[in-house]
Amino acid sequence: MKPGGMRSAAPGALDATPALCGALGGRQVHSHWSGVDVSRRPKLTSQQLDQVAHRVTAVAHAEVEGLSRPDLSAEYCKTMQQQMGSPSLEYRHQDGMNYTRIWDDVIVGSCVQTPGDVDWLVEKEGVSTIVCLQEDKDCEYWDLDLAAIKDCCTSRGDVKHLHLPIRDFDPQSLRQRLPKIVAEFSRQHERVGGAIYIHCTAGLGRAPAAAIAYMYWCKGWKLKDAVDYLVARRPCGPKIFAIREATADVLYWSSRKEVQISVVAPDNTEVVQVAGLDIGWGSTLTMDFDPATQRYVTRRLLSPGRFQFKFVMDGNWWCSADYPAHHDGPNRNNYIEVTLDSDSAAAVDRLVSEEGVMTLEESWRMVEAMQRL
């Protein structure tokens, strides 16, 4: 596949040139115009230019009046930069969609904000499938009307909307959810053709990870090549190790092992839970008290790899000295390594290494798995 239109950006930083205006007859003028042929811009009538001027003035007043409110984009960027470990990444929601055509039929970008964005993607970019990786709470944070966006896709009839949520900034959720998500949107994409638009919130974490996994698992690309190709065109910070671990999960699912996690709780503690592991940071498991050991215990069947976790005691998150710990962004988490006793250990070690190269036989098995999941 050949790269499509590229946006100009400084190395290591996303080009976030502000959009010209807000809605023009239901269609947004998007910030992805930066660095592309101006002939692709719509011709504006004098009435539309008046709308532009009115909108710019309204936005300016709104920004001045809203200085006392938390700036959603600034707060989100602060969290994103901490979690991704990259202070150069930036997202300005108020500028509208920004996106990059990575391959001829794969576009990675920020969230669809209005039904007008759907019209733009279909009519200007040839999109036939929109994959939304945002959770409902992401949409609530940005005050997005996801129902209206879905209704627009349904009423048009020429674009399919797939809502396949992954928890933001949660590599375990990415690892757990990615195989079935890629399997679902790849089947849809292969069936209808056209271009696929994959988005999360900023288009810098979950969405590029999904696009990379699609090229790795379904299109025969080596993982490193897919990462290098995408990041060169859209600077971003996807959790690549989660893709490696998800690959091993799919190919060596039968190699799971039962693992026990336990902890001593302070006196008078009422509820002891654990978060992370294979359930992600958005969920918790209540642990059982073992009178014989005086510890709270839970057991899980886990695939090979490293699993981060943290204990939650009466609502307070706690890192235990009984297990190794490391920093993931600003957070210090416990972790456990699940190893194999079988001949599969060498294969899994290879797959989760930085190269992450599948053998030809594994590639065929992965393609079959994508059709089956």
From TrEMBL:
| SUPFAM superfamilies for the chain | (Phosphotyrosine protein) phosphatases II, E set domains
Matching entries from InterPro entries are given as: AMPK1_CBM, DSP_laforin-like, Dual-sp_phosphatase_cat-dom, Ig-like_fold, Ig_E-set, Prot-tyrosine_phosphatase-like, Starch-Glucan_Phosphatase, Tyr_Pase_dom
Q: Which residues form the Tyrosine-protein phosphatase domain?
A: 98-265
Entry keyword annotation includes Hydrolase: yes
Q: Name one GO cellular component term.
A: chloroplast
Which branch of life, at top level?
Eukaryota
**One of the GO BP terms on file:** starch catabolic process
Q: CDD domains, alphabetically?
A: DSP_laforin-like (cd14526), E_set_AMPKbeta_like_N (cd02859)
Q: What is this protein called?
A: Uncharacterized protein
Q: What is the organism field in this record?
A: Ostreobium quekettii
